[in-house]
Amino acid sequence: MSHTVAEKILQAHTSDDASQPGRIVRCRVDLVLANDITAPLAIKSFRAMGARDVFDRDRVALVCDHFTPNKDIESAEQVRAVREFALEKKITHYFEGGDVGVEHALLPELGLVGPGDVVIGADSHTCTYGGLGAFATGMGSTDIAAAMALGETWFKVPPTIRVEMSGTLAPFVGGKDLILKVIGGIGVSGALYKALEFGGPLTSELSVEARMTMANMAIEAGGKAGLFPVDEKTLAYCRAAGRLGDTALDADPGATYERVLRIDATGMEPQVACPHLPDNVRPVGELKGLRLDQAVIGSCTNGRISDLREAAAVLKGRKVKKNLRCVVLPATPNIWRQALREGLIETFMEAGCIVGPATCGPCLGGHMGILAKGERAVATTNRNFKGRMGSLESEVYLSNPSVAAASAVAGEIIHPAAL
Amino acid sequence: MIVTGKAHKVGDHIDTDAIIPARYLVTTDTAELGSHFMEGISADWNARVSKNDVLVAGENFGCGSSREHAPLAVLGAGIPVVVAKSFARIFYRNGFNMGLTLLEVGEGADKLRDGDQLEVDTESGIIRNLTTGESVRCAPVPSSMQDLVDAGGLVAYVKRRLTTGGH
Question: Are B80 and B3 in contact (CB under 8 A)?
Answer without folding.
Answer: yes
